[in-house]
Design brief:
The chain is of the alpha+beta class. Helices cover 42% and strands 13% of the residues. The strands form two sheets. Strands 1-3-2 form a three-stranded antiparallel β-sheet. The chain has a two-stranded antiparallel ribbon with strand order 4-5.
Length: 118
């Protein structure tokens, strides 16, 4: 279960910010470009997966997220297991793997995800 402190963006907000139809956001979820969680009957995507400036053309999925999600899925991780791993504190990283995706340790996070598959 994802900690309540993790900020989520709802599907309509993502659709508006990325300037795509809601159906495209649903397709992104099916294609595992994004991963969503249900909280209080509302589906949301962890905000840390997205770069939102709320300026036209400047909003996007964080560069490393689709590849990382693919690696973990191919390694047999379910969506819930992926979220648990991404948002669990890691003493060898400053914070969680999800937070490390925003800095210079993104490649290290992907390398660790690849190692989990074996």
């Amino acid at each position: 279960m994802l900690d309540r402190s993790v900020e989520l963006y709802q599907i309509p907000d993502i659709s508006k910010a990325l300037r795509v139809p809601i159906t495209r956001v649903h397709q992104m979820l099916r294609d595992r470009l994004l991963l969503a969680v249900r909280r209080d009957s509302v589906v949301g995507v962890p905000a840390i997966f997205l770069e939102f400036d709320f300026e036209p053309g400047r909003n996007r999925i964080l560069r490393w997220v689709p590849g990382l999600l693919a690696v973990l899925h191919d390694g047999g991780y379910s969506g819930e297991e992926t979220l648990t791993w991404l948002f669990t504190e890691d003493d060898s990283l400053p914070g969680t793997p999800a937070e490390a995706l925003r800095g210079h340790l993104a490649r290290e996070v992907i390398r660790r995800a690849q190692a989990l598959a074996f």
